[in-house]
Each structure stands twice: as C-alpha cells, then as structure tokens.
Amino acid sequence: MDDDAWEKLGVWAQLQHMDGQVKTEIGRRLEAAFGTSLLEHELLAALLPHPDGLRMHELADALLVTRGGVTRLIDRLVGKGLVERHPEPGNRRVILAVLTDKGRRQTAEAKDLQCAIYDELIGSRLDGQDIAALRRILGKTSRPHPPEADQAASSRGDFPVRE
Fold first, then answer.
1. What is the pTM of this model?
2. CA 96 to CA 117: how far, in whole Å?
3. How many separate domains does the chain show?
4. For residue 33, what are the contacts with CB-CB under 8 A and spacing of at least 6?
5. Where do the segments described as Disordered lie (predicted)?
6. Tens digits of residue pLDDT in 99-116
7. Which domain holds residue 76?
8. Which residue stretches of the chain have pLDDT < 50?
C-alpha cells in the first residue's frame, strides 16, 4: 500500500474516532437527561418533521435498522409516552409512528443539548473557516447515491444494519 493510501486510511480512522467520541458523549448525556438512548433520539428526530407520522419501514430505512429493530424502539418509546401508533388513514392495516406532545418537547430539548455538546467537542476547536472547509470537504464524500443504487445495495446487504 502506498503512502497516499495510508494517508486516506488515517483520515478515515480520525473521522471514525471523532464520530465515536461525539456519539458516546451525546448518548451518555441524553441517557442521563432523558432516560433515552441516542438511537431512540434519532428516531424521535426522524419523526419531528412528519406531524402525521411515518410508516415503520420508512423509519427503519432512515435509521438503518431492521424493521424488527424499529418495532422494538417504537415499543420502548410508546412505553415512555413519547410516540403513539396510529392507523394510516385510508389503509388501517398500515401503522404510523407519531410523536406525542411530550415526544416533541423532549426532541426539542435534546436538540439543544446535542448542539451544546457539538459546540463543546467540535465548535470550540474550530473557527468559522474550519467549519466551512470541513462542511465543503465532507459534502464531497457524502453525496447521496441514486435511489436505485441504494435499493440494490440494501437488497444485497451492503449497508450496515443496527438494532
């Protein structure tokens, strides 16, 4: 492997390390403040822009978890009063996950906490130019794939699945 390849792997390792540090700290503080996990908050955040709710498979796809995994997450969040299950209008066989008022409030509070943590761990170390450069660089590598490519990769099992 040449030096350029090692350099690229080193950058990838640094990104993974930073991501792990930030997620660990956010998860720890969300659990302490709200009694819910980072993944549960990711689900709540995914529901926030959808006042009429989302289907279970839509949540599973958005969170990169299995349908069984999203069902277990929803069960926990229903038990905490943060989410409700509603039948879809016009097709009562389909169930939608919908945020409760409590879920909306908690999601907003959690967003404030997450922003403070990001600022503490990242923003305090980077100036505005650094943030803009990082955003530009990461934007080059995180462009979405065409939907048909994502669907083909998903059916082959190429995407990691969390539960």
1. 0.75
2. 31
3. 1
4. 109, 110, 113
5. 138-163
6. 999 999 999 999 999 999
7. 28-156
8. 149-150, 152-163
